[in-house]
Amino acid sequence: MQDTLEQIHAEIRACTGCRLHFGRRQAVPGDGPPNAKIMFIGEGPGFHEDQQGLPFVGAAGHFLDELLAMIRMKRADVYITNVIKCRPPANRDPQPEEIEACRSYLDRQISVIRPHMIITLGRYSMARPFPNARISQVHGHARKVDGILYFPMYHPAAALHQPSLRPEVEQDMRKIPDLLAQMDSMPDSRLQEDARQLTLF
Ligand code: URA
After folding, report:
1. Which pLDDT tens digit goes with each residue over 53-89?
2. Is there a contact between 156 and 120 (Cβ–Cβ < 8 Å)?
3. What is the CATH number of domain 2-181?
4. Alpha-carbon distance values, 118 to 6, 81, 100 (Å)
5. What is the Å distance from ligand 1's center to 198 Cα?
6. Is the minimum distance from the CB of 156 to ligand 1 under 6 angstroms?
7. What angle in degrees, to the nearest 10, is found between the helix axes of 166-182 and 59-70?
8. Ligand 1 nearest-atom number relative to CA 83
9. Residue 108, exposed/middle/buried by CB under 10 A (0-12, 13-18, 19+)?
């Protein structure tokens, strides 16, 4: 049967796949139109997200709204979700087994929405398309994989805690409209890798 976003959201709300469900008020599946061209992936829900069941509604979310406004976009134009869907105790970092337990939800969200561009916020979501990379080196550099343009950015909360990062975060955000417009002419790293493998035979 064809997956739908509502069905995935319902499964996430009822999920007991890892220990984080014990401490949550509610799970935070994601928010935005199912046909969004741009998808943002953060780390995991915090206090306000757990209360409201919506992603990025606290201080980092307000900053994300400001960043979106800089490129004349609104929340309603994009889909926003997180690597893990339940709040960790005291907002600690997600553990590998929690990320693993949520992995198939994120994979299914990506395959149903089929965004043109995925913007990863912070190092946990960056690790999917850029394993072993350092965010200080790869942020602001796009990479196309299987037709999706991945664009890593610092997490907005990082810029709130460390104001010296703010200009870089804003600069990266301002690159998004041009990247979207140019992505069709950008090389696909997976296709390039396939071509490289073929030349080995
Ligand atoms: N930080 C995140 O990574 N995600 C949220 O939803 C809120 C804050």
Report:
1. 999 999 999 999 999 999 999 999 999 999 999 999 9
2. no
3. 3.40.470.10
4. 20, 11, 19
5. 41
6. no
7. 50
8. 3
9. middle
